[in-house]
Amino acid sequence: MIYITQLIYLKPGQEAVFDQFEAVAIPLISKYNGKLLFRLRPSIDTFVEQTIASPYEVHLVRFESETDFQNFMQDDERRRFLHLKEMSIESSMLIKGEAL
């Protein structure tokens, strides 16, 4: 089992475009033995300490295997909407891990 944490930084004013992409991508996770564990939008007052910019959203997703995750990333339907992701996301940080 692998866990994916993603910090997402949006381009200014592109929240609605990002939501359009997420409306397509998030339901596809379960098709590939994955589960969205949480999706949050932290506010500045929720940070105790930080040395990087605050992300717009943080996602934590679990997949049964690396293969399942790669298959999700290559999904044809998801790929058809990548232009929305590219239009809306300035940058992101993807962190892979496993439960200890």
Provide tags for this entry:
4 strands, Alpha-Beta Plaits, four-stranded antiparallel sheet, globular, 100 residues, alpha+beta
Provide an overview of this structure:
By secondary structure, the chain is α+β, with helices and mostly antiparallel strands. 34% of the residues lie in helices and 32% in strands. A four-stranded antiparallel beta sheet has the order 2-3-1-4.
Question: How would the blueprint of this fold be written?
Answer:
Elements: E1 2-10, H1 15-28, E2 34-40, E3 57-63, H2 66-73, H3 76-80, H4 82-88, E4 89-97
Antiparallel strand pairs: 1-3, 1-4, 2-3
Helix pairs in contact: 1-4
CA-based gyration radius: 14 Å
User: How are the strands of the largest sheet arranged?
Assistant: 2-3-1-4
Structural class: alpha+beta
**CATH class (first level) name:** Alpha Beta
At CATH level 3, the topology is: Alpha-Beta Plaits
- The N- and C-terminal alpha carbons lie at a distance of 11 Å
Rough outline: globular
Amount of helix: 25-40%
Total strands: 4
Total DSSP helices: 4
Sheet with the most strands, sense and barrel status: 4 strands, antiparallel
Count of individual domains: 1
What percentage of the residues does DSSP assign to strands (E)? 25-35%
